[in-house]
Design brief:
Helices cover 32% and strands 27% of the residues.
Amino acid sequence: MKLRDLLRHLEAHGCELLREGAKHSVYVNRSARKTSTVPRHREVDDFLAHKICRDLDVPRPDA
């Protein structure tokens, strides 16, 4: 899955960027009080994308 598609999906479901690290971005879902790190690569493995969504209590993307 493309990184920009994953980020659009997360932001569409109420997640927002908390902070930037050296190689990862930290996203937070404030309503669920959950956080997850998202690697900054052009492609994100589908398994990892599903794990990030599960960590943030967001529905899985239909990729």
